[in-house]
Amino acid sequence: MKNILDLNLSDLKKWMEDNGESKFRGKQVFDWIYKKEIFDFEQMTNISKKTIHKLKEFFYIGIPEVVEVFTSEIDNTKKFLFKYKDNNIIESVVMRYKYGNSICISTQVGCRMGCKFCASTVDGMIRNLTSGEIIAQILKAQDEIGERISNVVLMGSGEPLDNFENVLTFLELVNSEETLNIGQRHITLSTCGIVPKIEELADKKLQITLAISLHAPNDEIRRNMMPIANKYSVEELIKSCRYYFNKTNRRISFEYALVKGINDKKENAEELCSILKDFSCHVNLIPINEIKENQFKKSRIDDINRFKEVLTKCGIETTIRREMGSDINAACGQLRRNYIKK
Ligand code: SAH
């Protein structure tokens, strides 16, 4: 049995033809799933019983089950714990902004990057998600909230560039008019910085936003936070970002999680300025989410503001990430870990 969400429309049209059906049945099935959010072949009323029977022999519609949902009373952020057919659990978060609904989705079950401040990586990586499993998070979330989702960030659990092929297939699928028609400029991919993959992505010349989890201005500090820094230096990473910018003309967004006493000093901000100046980019400062698996503590508000001021003075566009759903706060990977432990 195959997950029909792993197919694009031409795959399904081909399957229809190979199975003695006319091609346009493919489009009808896609409309039911992606436009009408019907996730049961039996309910597709313009498809004959015979065809439904055949479809059910080959395919299932791989929509995850909601095991838990947490809704913020402050800003209506919704955190979903989704369970796939094989019982693996991941998290997706829907955030409500003035400009529309945005979803943060996962690309792997767990993660093997080992960032020391992140809960998603504590038990390592279980498996990659397929393109269909990635898009299914958006489908199910839309169905749950009863509204369209217009923006997607690949910032849930997993390292997207460690699941490169499936993520690329997903990007193509979600962008297509026949499915959710979400524009590339409404999609952000966040990576801990796998340099060769950033360059490979640049060569695809997509119009998505690339976000880099930089978190440190130099190798020494970065290596204390992120194992990937042992493999690629900050210098190599920034060079690959320049390459991405030159190929796509898309401004890079740098994420910088502020940790008390580790990377939040004035001199750290100054060093960050020196490596990013004369590069058209954006810095997003993230007060770190404290998790019980480690000792990293959130920076003091004064230090966060000072950090921002130093960057802004040196001409770097800087924002402090607004905390969404702070009353249901569970840092990346926390919900899943708590659930599994239970
Ligand atoms: N693997 C990708 C995407 C998933 S992590 C990446 O590293 O970018 C999404 C973002 O959340 C990254 O910037 C990551 O560094 C950050 N993050 C992880 N744990 C965090 C925590 N406890 N507090 C704040 N940000 C965290």
UniProtKB/TrEMBL annotation:
Localisation per UniProt entry: Cytoplasm
Amino acids binding [4Fe-4S] cluster: 111, 115, 118
Location (main, coarse): cytoplasm
Cofactor: [4Fe-4S] cluster
Assigned EC number: 2.1.1.192
Enzyme class: transferase
Name of the protein in its database record: Probable dual-specificity RNA methyltransferase RlmN
Domain Radical SAM core residue range list: 97-327
Additional free-text comment from the UniProt record: Reaction proceeds by a ping-pong mechanism involving intermediate methylation of a conserved cysteine residue.
Protein's GO biological process: methylation
NCBIfam families, per the entry: rRNA_mod_RlmN
Reactions catalysed, as given in the entry: adenosine(2503) in 23S rRNA + 2 reduced [2Fe-2S]-[ferredoxin] + 2 S-adenosyl-L-methionine = 2-methyladenosine(2503) in 23S rRNA + 5'-deoxyadenosine + L-methionine + 2 oxidized [2Fe-2S]-[ferredoxin] + S-adenosyl-L-homocysteine; adenosine(37) in tRNA + 2 reduced [2Fe-2S]-[ferredoxin] + 2 S-adenosyl-L-methionine = 2-methyladenosine(37) in tRNA + 5'-deoxyadenosine + L-methionine + 2 oxidized [2Fe-2S]-[ferredoxin] + S-adenosyl-L-homocysteine
Cofactor info, note text: Binds 1 [4Fe-4S] cluster. The cluster is coordinated with 3 cysteines and an exchangeable S-adenosyl-L-methionine.
Taxonomy of the source species: Bacteria, Bacillati, Bacillota, Clostridia, Eubacteriales
Originating species: Clostridium ganghwense
Residues the entry annotates as binding S-adenosyl-L-methionine: 158-159, 190, 213-215, 289
Function: Specifically methylates position 2 of adenine 2503 in 23S rRNA and position 2 of adenine 37 in tRNAs.
Molecular function (Gene Ontology), one example: methyltransferase activity
Similarity field: Belongs to the radical SAM superfamily. RlmN family.
Keyword vocabulary terms for this entry: 4Fe-4S, Cytoplasm, Disulfide bond, Iron, Iron-sulfur, Metal-binding, Methyltransferase, rRNA processing, S-adenosyl-L-methionine, Transferase, tRNA processing
